[in-house]
Amino acid sequence: MRIATFNINGIKARLPRLLEWLDETRPDVACLQEIKTSDETFPAKEIEEAGYGAIWHGQKGFNGVAILARGETPVEVRRGLEGEPEDAHSRYIEADVKGVRVASIYLPNGNPQPGPKFDYKLRWMERLRRRAAEIWAEEVPAVLAGDYNVIPRDVDTFSVKAMQDDALMQPESRAAYRRMLNDGWTDAILSRHPAGGVWTFWDYQANSWPRDAGFRIDHLLLSPAAADRLIDAQVDRDFRGREKASDHAPTWVELRPA
After folding, report:
1. Which pLDDT value is given to residue 258?
2. Catalytic residue among 52, 92, 106, 177
3. Entry's Pfam families (predicted)?
4. Which residue in 88, 182, 79, 90 sits closest to 129, CA to CA?
5. 20 to 30 A from 102, CA-CA: which of 5, 109, 180, 230?
6. Is 92 a catalytic residue?
7. CA–CA separation, 4 and 237 (whole Å)
8. Residues near 127 by beta carbon (within 8 Å), at least 6 away in sequence
């Protein structure tokens, strides 16, 4: 069973690339972020024609998350995180799919830091941790997949110096991410590539893709019941190099059948 995460950076603008990726790789589940479209304008018909059912939590022009499942419609469990009723950002959706609890996550960027946006990022991470603890307590196989906007370690970026002032790499961001790992969640890519050097994002600016100036911010965290079934975890890196591609590459885990 392959579960992928893909920050599509505008589902309508990248729809040909998304459909191409679905056709070529056939993931069982695809968690999308930054769909940047309202609920009403989500391209459900095209995705259904590609063989996938979908649920989504849209927002016009910004944010937005979705979960796609091959051959079926995910059963929604939750949309949004509790803790800040005034938070109108569409950044979280959770569903049961093919016997696995799956969440699609688009964590706040947090720049510029310090400031209100960074404070919001840290609060959001704590809200995510609380929800993760609730999922953990259910003892279900679970995958928390998405764009976490956190570079966990120095070896997860092309240049520590270039990123040292960025919200993605601040000690507070890293500590919040590490607390989730210490709670018992497994970083799937880290488990397969402990030495680092694996990127999931390359900026459109500064010739980043040709220079391979990337970093790892797209993560799949596995509950113990999912980690026990882990076969592999990789990045579909080549899709970043295609015409009019997202600035993220799809990242995935393969789980053994239950």
Report:
1. 85
2. 106
3. Exo_endo_phos
4. 182
5. 109
6. no
7. 13
8. 81, 82, 83, 84
Residue type, 8: I
The residue whose two tokens read 């979960």 is 67
Say if pTM beats, i.e. exceeds, 0.90.
Answer: yes
What is the distance between the alpha carbons of residues 90 and 226, in angstroms, rounded to a whole number? Answer: 26
Which position among 28, 52, 147, 187 bears the catalytic label?
147
The answer to whether 147 is a known catalytic residue is yes
**DSSP per residue, the chain:** -EEEEEE-S-TTTTHHHHHHHHHHH--SEEEEE---S-STT--HHHHHHTTEEEEEE--TTS--EEEEEETS--EEEEES-TT-TT-----EEEEEETTEEEEEEE-----SSSSHHHHHHHHHHHHHHHHHHHHHHTT--EEEEEE-----SGGGBS-HHHHTTSGGG-HHHHHHHHHHHHTT-EEHHHHH-TT----SEE-SSTTHHHHT-EE--EEEEE-HHHHTTEEEEEE-GGGGGSTT--SB--EEEEE---
| Nearest-angstrom CA–CA distance, 3 and 107 | 19
User: Which residues, in sequence order, are CB contacts of 163 under 8 Å at separation 6+?
Assistant: 151, 157, 169, 215
Question: At which residue do the structure tokens 């929604």 appear?
Answer: 76
Domain segments of the chain as ranges = 2-255
